[in-house]
Write a structure and sequence with these properties.
Length: 168
Protein backbone atom coordinates (compact mmCIF):
# COMPACT_ATOMS: atom_id res chain seq x y z
CA UNK A 1 0.00 0.00 0.00
CA UNK A 2 2.81 2.37 0.81
CA UNK A 3 4.46 1.79 -2.57
CA UNK A 4 1.20 2.68 -4.38
CA UNK A 5 0.94 5.92 -2.41
CA UNK A 6 4.55 6.76 -3.19
CA UNK A 7 3.97 6.06 -6.92
CA UNK A 8 0.85 8.25 -7.00
CA UNK A 9 2.66 11.04 -5.15
CA UNK A 10 5.59 10.81 -7.57
CA UNK A 11 3.20 10.97 -10.53
CA UNK A 12 1.32 13.97 -9.14
CA UNK A 13 4.42 15.92 -8.07
CA UNK A 14 5.19 17.43 -11.51
CA UNK A 15 1.55 18.43 -11.92
CA UNK A 16 1.48 20.13 -8.51
CA UNK A 17 4.73 21.93 -9.16
CA UNK A 18 3.36 23.20 -12.47
CA UNK A 19 0.13 24.41 -10.90
CA UNK A 20 1.67 25.93 -7.81
CA UNK A 21 4.79 27.32 -9.49
CA UNK A 22 3.02 29.21 -12.27
CA UNK A 23 1.43 32.52 -11.40
CA UNK A 24 -0.18 33.20 -14.74
CA UNK A 25 2.32 35.87 -15.84
CA UNK A 26 4.16 34.90 -18.99
CA UNK A 27 7.91 35.40 -19.13
CA UNK A 28 8.98 38.55 -20.92
CA UNK A 29 12.49 37.66 -21.96
CA UNK A 30 15.13 40.37 -22.42
CA UNK A 31 13.83 43.93 -22.55
CA UNK A 32 15.70 46.56 -24.51
CA UNK A 33 15.45 49.66 -22.38
CA UNK A 34 18.32 51.68 -23.77
CA UNK A 35 21.76 52.45 -22.45
CA UNK A 36 22.55 52.44 -18.74
CA UNK A 37 22.39 55.73 -16.90
CA UNK A 38 25.49 57.84 -17.42
CA UNK A 39 26.62 61.36 -16.76
CA UNK A 40 27.99 63.41 -13.97
CA UNK A 41 26.36 63.53 -10.58
CA UNK A 42 25.16 66.97 -9.49
CA UNK A 43 26.39 68.57 -6.27
CA UNK A 44 29.74 69.77 -5.00
CA UNK A 45 32.70 67.45 -5.32
CA UNK A 46 36.35 68.07 -4.66
CA UNK A 47 39.16 66.11 -6.26
CA UNK A 48 42.11 64.59 -4.45
CA UNK A 49 45.17 62.76 -5.71
CA UNK A 50 45.71 59.04 -5.22
CA UNK A 51 48.28 56.58 -6.55
CA UNK A 52 45.74 55.68 -9.24
CA UNK A 53 45.00 59.27 -10.29
CA UNK A 54 42.31 61.73 -9.29
CA UNK A 55 39.38 60.75 -7.13
CA UNK A 56 36.23 62.81 -6.64
CA UNK A 57 34.75 63.14 -3.17
CA UNK A 58 31.25 64.43 -2.57
CA UNK A 59 30.72 67.39 -0.27
CA UNK A 60 26.91 67.66 -0.36
CA UNK A 61 26.50 69.58 2.89
CA UNK A 62 29.05 72.26 2.01
CA UNK A 63 27.69 75.55 0.66
CA UNK A 64 29.50 76.97 -2.33
CA UNK A 65 28.61 80.55 -3.17
CA UNK A 66 31.60 81.32 -5.37
CA UNK A 67 34.76 79.72 -6.73
CA UNK A 68 36.79 80.84 -3.71
CA UNK A 69 34.51 78.68 -1.54
CA UNK A 70 35.45 75.69 -3.69
CA UNK A 71 39.14 76.50 -3.22
CA UNK A 72 38.57 76.67 0.55
CA UNK A 73 36.93 73.23 0.49
CA UNK A 74 39.89 71.89 -1.43
CA UNK A 75 42.35 73.47 1.00
CA UNK A 76 40.72 71.64 3.93
CA UNK A 77 41.99 68.46 2.32
CA UNK A 78 40.72 64.92 2.60
CA UNK A 79 39.05 63.68 5.77
CA UNK A 80 40.83 61.22 8.05
CA UNK A 81 39.08 58.26 6.40
CA UNK A 82 39.83 59.64 2.93
CA UNK A 83 43.52 60.00 3.85
CA UNK A 84 43.47 56.43 5.17
CA UNK A 85 42.20 55.29 1.76
CA UNK A 86 45.16 56.96 0.03
CA UNK A 87 43.85 60.41 -0.89
CA UNK A 88 46.00 63.51 -0.55
CA UNK A 89 45.82 67.19 -1.42
CA UNK A 90 48.80 68.10 -3.56
CA UNK A 91 47.78 71.77 -3.58
CA UNK A 92 48.03 72.35 0.16
CA UNK A 93 51.52 73.82 -0.14
CA UNK A 94 50.52 76.27 -2.87
CA UNK A 95 49.31 79.61 -1.55
CA UNK A 96 47.87 82.65 -3.25
CA UNK A 97 45.28 80.89 -5.43
CA UNK A 98 42.36 82.94 -6.70
CA UNK A 99 39.72 81.98 -9.24
CA UNK A 100 37.05 83.78 -11.18
CA UNK A 101 34.76 82.67 -13.94
CA UNK A 102 31.88 83.38 -16.25
CA UNK A 103 29.83 80.64 -17.84
CA UNK A 104 32.13 77.87 -19.03
CA UNK A 105 35.37 79.85 -18.62
CA UNK A 106 37.43 80.06 -15.42
CA UNK A 107 40.72 81.83 -14.82
CA UNK A 108 42.91 80.74 -11.92
CA UNK A 109 45.75 82.97 -10.75
CA UNK A 110 48.62 81.51 -8.75
CA UNK A 111 50.33 84.61 -7.41
CA UNK A 112 52.99 82.83 -5.33
CA UNK A 113 53.89 79.66 -7.21
CA UNK A 114 54.67 78.09 -10.53
CA UNK A 115 52.87 74.96 -11.62
CA UNK A 116 54.52 72.83 -14.30
CA UNK A 117 52.33 72.04 -17.30
CA UNK A 118 53.07 68.31 -16.84
CA UNK A 119 51.93 68.20 -13.18
CA UNK A 120 48.65 66.53 -14.08
CA UNK A 121 47.56 65.57 -10.58
CA UNK A 122 47.89 69.10 -9.19
CA UNK A 123 46.39 70.69 -12.28
CA UNK A 124 43.62 68.09 -12.30
CA UNK A 125 42.72 68.74 -8.67
CA UNK A 126 42.40 72.42 -9.42
CA UNK A 127 40.65 72.15 -12.78
CA UNK A 128 38.14 69.45 -11.82
CA UNK A 129 37.22 70.96 -8.45
CA UNK A 130 36.64 74.39 -9.99
CA UNK A 131 34.75 72.97 -12.97
CA UNK A 132 32.44 71.13 -10.57
CA UNK A 133 31.95 74.29 -8.51
CA UNK A 134 31.09 76.30 -11.61
CA UNK A 135 28.41 73.75 -12.52
CA UNK A 136 27.00 73.92 -8.98
CA UNK A 137 26.92 77.72 -9.13
CA UNK A 138 25.43 77.83 -12.64
CA UNK A 139 23.00 74.95 -13.26
CA UNK A 140 23.18 75.40 -17.04
CA UNK A 141 26.94 74.71 -17.03
CA UNK A 142 28.19 71.14 -17.34
CA UNK A 143 31.42 70.41 -15.44
CA UNK A 144 32.87 68.48 -18.37
CA UNK A 145 32.66 71.53 -20.67
CA UNK A 146 34.21 74.13 -18.35
CA UNK A 147 37.57 75.46 -19.57
CA UNK A 148 40.10 76.47 -16.94
CA UNK A 149 43.14 78.63 -17.66
CA UNK A 150 45.87 78.78 -15.01
CA UNK A 151 48.06 81.87 -14.80
CA UNK A 152 51.28 81.83 -12.79
CA UNK A 153 53.85 84.61 -12.32
CA UNK A 154 55.74 83.42 -15.42
CA UNK A 155 53.31 81.48 -17.59
CA UNK A 156 49.78 80.75 -18.69
CA UNK A 157 48.58 77.14 -18.88
CA UNK A 158 45.53 75.75 -20.60
CA UNK A 159 42.71 76.03 -21.11
CA UNK A 160 42.05 72.63 -19.58
CA UNK A 161 38.88 70.57 -19.17
CA UNK A 162 38.37 68.06 -16.38
CA UNK A 163 37.90 64.98 -18.62
CA UNK A 164 41.52 65.37 -19.76
CA UNK A 165 42.69 64.59 -16.22
CA UNK A 166 40.09 61.93 -15.41
CA UNK A 167 40.59 59.83 -18.54
CA UNK A 168 44.35 59.36 -18.17
Amino acid sequence: MKSATIRRSAALAPLLVGLLGGCGIPSTGVLNSGAPATGLIRGMRVYFATDAGLRAVSRPSQAVEDLQDALKLLSVGPSKSERASGMTNLLESIGGITASGTGEKITVVLSEAELPADDNLRLGQLVCTLARAQSVLHKEVRPDTVQVTVRTPRSSLGPYQCPFFIEQ
